[in-house]
Amino acid sequence: MSTIDFDSDNQIVSLYGKKSSYNLKLNSNSMPLHLHWGAKTCLSVKQSFFPANDRGFMILAKDRDSSYFAEEMQFEYGFAENGDFRVPAFRIRDGQNYPITGPFELTAHIYRGKNPIPGLPSARPGDTQVLETLELRMHDSNSGLWITLFYTMFPEYDAVTRHVRFHNEGSRPIKIEKAASISLDMYNWEYELLYLHGAWARERQLQRRPLQSGTTAFGSIRGISSHQFNPSFALVSPETTEFSGEAYGFSLVYSGNFLTELELNHDNNLRVNLGLHPDTFEWQLQPGDSFYTPEVLMIYSDEGLNGMSHNFHGFIRDHIFPPAFQNAERPILFNNWEATYFDFEERGLVELSNIAADVGVELFVLDDGWFGERNSDRTSLGDWSVNTAKLPNGLKGLAEEIEKRKLQFGLWLEPEMISLNSKLARAHPDWYISIPNRPVAEGRNQLVLDLSRSDVCEFLVATLDQILSSAPISYVKWDMNRYLTNVASPQFPASQQRELYHRYVLGLYHVLDEITAKYPKVLFEGCSGGGGRFDLGILYYMPQYWTSDNTDAVSRIKIQYGTSLFYPPVSMGAHVSAVPNHQVGRTTSLEFRGHTAMSGNFGYELDLRALSDAELRQITQQSAFYSQHRRLLQFGRFLRIKSPFESSEAAWMFVHSPESAEDSYDYFLLFWFRLHAEANPPSPRVKLAYLEEHAVYEQESSGLSYTGSELMHRGIILPQLEGDYVSQVFTFTKKGRFG
Ligand code: GLA
Description:
The protein is an alpha+beta fold and 739 residues long. The chain folds into 3 domains: 4-320, alpha-galactosidase from lactobacil brevis (Beta-galactosidase, Chain A, domain 5); 324-635, Aldolase class I (TIM Barrel), CATH 3.20.20.70; 653-737, Golgi alpha-mannosidase II (Immunoglobulin-like, Sandwich). Helix content is 19%, strand content 31%. Alpha-D-galactopyranose binds next to loops.
C-alpha cells in the first residue's frame, strides 16, 4: 500500500491517511505550496489554486515559470524577506550576513520507511506498518544551502510527522536565526485554538478561544517545555465538540524552549509555526554541516476532540514510547515522598514496604534524600553516593529487602542538577551553567549542569550506569527541579553562545539515549517539579510522567482532563495522597482520591503507617480493582464525557478500542465525579459513546441493563450522591445482543 502519491504532470504530492490527506504542490524554482490538510480530498488539477489579483501594494515574486504575489500564497515553509510579510518559519543569513531568500531549486523524493533524526527523539516507524517519507529538497545555489522538508504519513492515526534539515554545501558559514519545525498556511475557516496553560502545581488547564487578527503566540524560554504552556495544541471548528467536528492537533517532539505562532492576516489566512524559540536560539552552520529541527506530530480527526485524542494516544503508545513499554502493563507504585519527605531511614522504609506489599502495591519507590548529606533541598545534588547513616546496607541492601516482599524497587534521581553545596561543585566549579564573572542565580538552592559539555554528559552516563548496576533497580524517577537561566558556556566561542539552550537539550537526549539503550527494561518516569517537562521528547525515553506535584484529587481532575487531550492516561503518574492534602489543604474521601488516581497511572504516596485498618482494607480493595481492570485502564480507549472546566461535574470512560482485536474487552468503565454540591440537584445524566449499538450492557452493582444505543443516544441517569467531592465508578458488562 502506498501512502504518498506524486502526480508528476501537475507536480502535486498527496499523502493519504485512513480518513485524511495532506496535499501540496511543487512550484518549480520556489517554495513548495500548501494546498490542503484535513478530510481526505482529491484535487482537480484544472484550476489555479491561489488568487492572482494584483490588489495594490503587493510584492511580485518571480520564479522560472510564473509570477505570483507571495502574500496570496500558502507555503509549506513560510519564508522571510521576499514579499510574504507573515511571521516566517525560518530566517537565515549567508556568510555576508545577507538574508537568504531563494529562489530555491526544488525537487521531491519519495522513499520507503522513515529515518531517525540524528541527535533528537522522533516517531519510531515501528514494524507493523509500511511507511513512506517525502523529502522536499530546496537548494540555494548562491550560498550552497539546502533546506529539506521531511513528511511521513502514519495512515492508521491520520498522523503526519514533519521536520527540517539545513545543510551547508557552500564554503562559508551560514547563520540560522530561526528554524521552526513546521509552518502551515491554512485558510481560516473560523478556527478556534485549544491549548494548555498553567503553572507549577496547576499544569495543563484547558483554554479554548477564537483566533483574532494578528499573532497569537505562546511558548517557553525556561529551558524546558514548561509548566506554563505545553508544546501541544489544537485548532478546531467552532462546532467541534468532544464527539464530532474537525480537530487538528499539533505536538512538538522536544523538551526545551519552543514557540507557537498563529498569525491571522488581513486575508483571513492563518499561518501556524511551531518549533524552536528564536529568542533563545541561533546556529552557526559550518560548511559541510547539517542542522536538524525537532519533529512535529500533526493529527487530524473528524470525530471531535475524543477522536483526535484517541489518535494521539495510540500514536504515542505505538510510535513514541520506548519499545519495551509500548504494551507493557505498569505496576502499582508506592512513593515515599509525601510519606516521609527527607526524614527516613532503612527501618522505616522496610516497614512501609511491608504494608505496601500487603495492600497490593507492586513497586516501591525511594524518592529524594537517599544520597550525600541530603536532609533538605539545600545540598548534595551531584553527590550520588548513598547516605549510609540513613541506609546502612546501601541501596543494594534496601532493594534486596524490598524484593523479599515481592516488590520491585525504584529510585529517585535528579541527574541534571548540582547543589553549590556539594563535592561535585567544589571539584568542578566550571560544570554548572552560569555567566563567567557574574553572580549565579539559584532556584530551589540548585544550579543546572552544563549539558552542552560532552565531559559533563559522559560523567552523567557513567554515574547513572554505576547507580543502576549497583542494585536491582527496575524504575527511575528522573526529576528536574529548576528552569535554566544565565545561560553561557566558556567552552564555546562568542559566535555560538546562542546555541546553548538547544545544545543543553541535545546533551540531555544524548545521556538519555545512552542510558536507556543500556537499560532498556528499566521503567523511567519523568518529572520536573511535577509536570514541567511533560512532552513527547521526554515520553520517547520515559513512558510515564509525574503529572503534577499537586496530588489533591479535585485539582487533579482538571489537570488530568487537560493532559488527556494529547497524552494517554497510562503516561500520567497519579497517586492517592494524604488528607488534608499537602498542596491545597483540602480533605476528600479515600474513594474519591482512588477514583481520580486510578484514572491515570496508579499509585500511592502517603504514610501507610498512619492509616487505620479500615483505610488499609479500602486500599487493598482499590488496588485489587485496579489490577483487575489494569489492561483496560492502561491500554483501553479513554473518552472524555463531561468537562470539569464547564461545570462542577466530570465524567470519563474507558472502553475497548474496536479496531484492535487483541485489546478487545466485553465491558467498560464509567467514572463520574461531582466537585461541589448544590441544593435540590437533579440526578446526574450522561451520554456515553463508542459502544456497540445493539449490545446489551449490564451494570454490575445495580444489575440494571441498557442497550448500547440507549446509553449513547438517550443517556443514563446516575444515582444522586450527597456532599462535595463525591464520585462513582460503574462497571458495565456486555450480555449479548438486543432483539
Ligand atoms: C520534586 C518532585 C517531587 C519530589 C521532590 C523531591 O518537587 O516533583 O515529586 O520528588 O522533587 O525533592
